[in-house]
Amino acid sequence: MITIVGAGLGGLTLARVLHLHNIPVTVYEGDASAAARTQGGQLDIHEQNGQLALEAAGLLEEFRKHIHEGGEAMRILGPDGSTLFDEPDDGSGHRPEILRGDLRQILIDSLPEGTISWGHKVTAITPVGAGRHELTFADGTTATTELLVGADGAWSRVRPLLSDATPQYVGTSFVETYLYDADERHAASAKAVGTGAMMATVPGKGIQAHREANGVLHTYVSLTRPQEWFDAAPITAARVAAEFEGWAPELTALITDGETPPVLRPLHTLPTEHRWERVPGVTLLGDAAHLQVPNGEGANLAMYDGAELGRAIAAYPGDIEAALTQYEAGLFPRSAAESAEAARDFERFFGPDTPQSVLELFKSA
Ligand SMILES: Cc1cc2nc3c(=O)[nH]c(=O)nc-3n(C[C@H](O)[C@H](O)[C@H](O)COP(=O)(O)OP(=O)(O)OC[C@H]3O[C@@H](n4cnc5c(N)ncnc54)[C@H](O)[C@@H]3O)c2cc1C
């Protein structure tokens, strides 16, 4: 039996690919159910990784039914609301968008009933010899496995079996807000955001928003501040908006009109070259393996890892170590290159030369 810890997009893609190969698998997930947490946010699913993973999972057609049309437009505004760059959706569909919750549900529905053990938060893992591991769950129960896959995200419980690396704060945090029924109730902000993505940045701060299905404006405010700044007082809309004094009201309204409490998302990364020596019976995928700054690739990469690992396991029946060796030989260079690229993108978006560096990026694309 193969055991996956974490029913995020990466773990679920792996489970699905294994299922297609008739390989028994169990997914242990800490959340009590699929609906336990809102899976906010819309994801671009890319041709070179996320879509390939969905193809391997036999779910490309199902995915296409849930695409949010028109979401590929991109606009860059100045702090005064002036337009610096405006590119409509070209209709090419290279980066179709889907709500994360919809994508996760497609994967969940594609697995046989009982594959996912919800409400099973792993609290300890003990090697018991010959590549086997015993998992202990928060409720005190245990399970033993011959292949353990850590798909349990940034703060992975499985990762310490392989590596001493821990995520480090990158110096920038996002604050997330949502506006609903935007065209009717927040018309000026809806117009500023347009039909796809909008960003307005200066060194040290920015407002990025995205129109999602059903008239939702989803905003990430970026603030480059030390951790202590965020710890010093509660993160309220007023406190965040005060950092944008003098900015166009249709931009600051994305913060002050937020209809959900602002959610702080401090950004952490693992080292760009994160890798490990082969340890029998255990590996990682997705954020657990290569946590990087957000550049629209993380979920795509997690799914791609899941598909690759599933294929490798299927290619070496009865030889787990050969499968893991092959998977990791692809994983390490791929992740290092992607993490370096993400760091470069992040610098362009949020570094000292923004928004000029972003304009150059989009104008040259
Ligand atoms: C602000 C922000 C914006 C982003 N935007 C995008 C984007 O637009 N596009 C994109 O591609 N990527 C984006 N990403 C990155 C993306 O969210 C991640 O890379 C992706 O979710 C990683 O998937 P995963 O399956 O590896 O892990 P996760 O999605 O983190 O899933 C891990 C799962 O493991 C479970 N779990 C954790 N610990 C345990 C435990 N001990 N026991 C049992 N279960 C456990 C969790 O509950 C969770 O369900 C963004 C990230 C951030 C921070």
TrEMBL record:
<keyword id="KW-0560">Oxidoreductase</keyword>
<dbReference type="GO" id="GO:0004497">
    <property type="term" value="F:monooxygenase activity"/>
</dbReference>
<dbReference type="InterPro" id="IPR002938">
    <property type="entry name" value="FAD-bd"/>
</dbReference>
<feature type="binding site">
    <location>
        <position position="44"/>
    </location>
    <ligand>
        <name>FAD</name>
    </ligand>
</feature>
<protein>
    <recommendedName>
        <fullName>Flavin-dependent monooxygenase</fullName>
        <ecNumber>1.14.13.-</ecNumber>
    </recommendedName>
</protein>
<feature type="domain" description="FAD-binding">
    <location>
        <begin position="3"/>
        <end position="163"/>
    </location>
</feature>
<feature type="binding site">
    <location>
        <position position="287"/>
    </location>
    <ligand>
        <name>FAD</name>
    </ligand>
</feature>
<keyword id="KW-0285">Flavoprotein</keyword>
<dbReference type="InterPro" id="IPR036188">
    <property type="entry name" value="FAD/NAD-bd_sf"/>
</dbReference>
<keyword id="KW-0547">Nucleotide-binding</keyword>
<feature type="binding site">
    <location>
        <position position="100"/>
    </location>
    <ligand>
        <name>FAD</name>
    </ligand>
</feature>
<feature type="binding site">
    <location>
        <position position="37"/>
    </location>
    <ligand>
        <name>NADPH</name>
    </ligand>
</feature>
<keyword id="KW-0503">Monooxygenase</keyword>
<dbReference type="GO" id="GO:0071949">
    <property type="term" value="F:FAD binding"/>
</dbReference>
<comment type="similarity">
    <text>Belongs to the aromatic-ring hydroxylase family. TetX subfamily.</text>
</comment>
<dbReference type="InterPro" id="IPR043683">
    <property type="entry name" value="TetX_monooxygenase"/>
</dbReference>
<dbReference type="GO" id="GO:0046677">
    <property type="term" value="P:response to antibiotic"/>
</dbReference>
<comment type="subunit">
    <text>Monomer.</text>
</comment>
<dbReference type="Pfam" id="PF01494">
    <property type="entry name" value="FAD_binding_3"/>
</dbReference>
<keyword id="KW-0274">FAD</keyword>
<comment type="function">
    <text>An FAD-requiring monooxygenase active on some tetracycline antibiotic derivatives, which leads to their inactivation. Hydroxylates carbon 11a of tetracycline and some analogs.</text>
</comment>
<dbReference type="GO" id="GO:0005737">
    <property type="term" value="C:cytoplasm"/>
</dbReference>
<keyword id="KW-0521">NADP</keyword>
<keyword id="KW-0963">Cytoplasm</keyword>
